[in-house]
Amino acid sequence: MGEVAIELAAPEQRRYRSEEFGLLWRDATGPIPEAVALDFSLSRWSGAGSDIDMQLAGPDLGRLRPAANEVKRRLREYAGVYEVTDSFRAGKEEMKLGIKPAAEALGLTLQDLGRQVRQAFYGEEAQRIQRGRDDIRVMVRYPRDERRSLGDLENMRIRNPDGGEVPFGQVAVVEPGRGFASIRRVDRNRALTASVMPP
User: Fold this and answer.
1) CA 17 centroid distance within chain
2) How many CA atoms lie within 13 A of 136 on its CB side?
3) DSSP 8-class letter at 170
4) How far apart are the first and last CA of the chain?
5) Where residue 49 falls among pLDDT bands split at 50, 70, 90?
6) Rounded average pLDDT over 79-86
7) 29, 45, 48, 172: which is deepest, by most CB within 10 A?
8) Banded model confidence at residue 190, pLDDT cuts 50, 70, 90
9) Distance, CA of 196 to CA of 60 (rounded, Å)
10) Mean predicted lDDT score pLDDT of the chain
């Protein structure tokens, strides 16, 4: 996150009104690759919020995102509309686990798989010791050298309900992806907001 603040000279000492200066600055900046959001705000608008907020809600995020993009595209067609954004923010990179049919035949569930991966890499609390006012948690997990890469995950063995172990790759799939920075719901539906910021 970054911020640039510019204090303009008194109105009688400059050629541009503050609104004109803001528009020139926005045009000169242009698009910034991979920026999540870019806002230009004048002090007189500080805290004023957006000019337009349109909320879209639905059960399927796969259809909601294209709908929000279409709303933003249509809003940009109006003269005088500059900053059109939406409330969708991708979160951190993550690995998404899936389960193969072979795992279900062994009695494994996705919950079992997720729990064992979490225990191996994050740790499982084995004991809690009281030391004065502090709790000391004893966590059991793989050694540091065995939990550094995706290869370590693929080399892991998964325990089935019978006590046997199978290679991770036989019962699970893992795909890179991104989580969500936040999730908004309205009446149990996923919701996005398309906004037009003041010039």
Assistant:
1) 38
2) 5
3) H
4) 21
5) low
6) 76
7) 172
8) confident
9) 24
10) 83
Mean pLDDT of 44-52: 58
C-alpha to C-alpha distance for 178 and 96, rounded to whole angstroms: 9
Given a contact cutoff of 8 angstroms between Cβ atoms, the answer to whether 197 and 45 are in contact is no
Query: What is the Cα–Cα distance from 142 to 126, expressed in whole angstroms?
Result: 13
Token pair 């036989």 in the structure block, residue: 170
CB atoms within 10 A of CB 64: 19
User: Per-residue DSSP letters for 107-139?
Assistant: T--HHHHHHHHHHHHT-EEEEEEEETTEEEEEE
Residues 50 and 8: their CA atoms lie apart, in Å, by: 23
Looking at per-residue confidence, does 57 or 36 come out higher?
Answer: 57
Residue 56 pairs in a beta bridge with: 192
Residue 190: strand, helix, or coil: strand
**pLDDT surpasses 80 at 43:** no
pTM: 0.51
Cβ contact 120:147 at 8 Å: yes
Give the highest mean pLDDT range of 65-79, 107-121, 137-151: 107-121
CB 88 within 8 A of CB 69: no
CA angle 113, 117, 122 (to 5 degrees): 150
How far apart are the C-alpha atoms of 46 and 49, rounded to whole Å?
Answer: 8
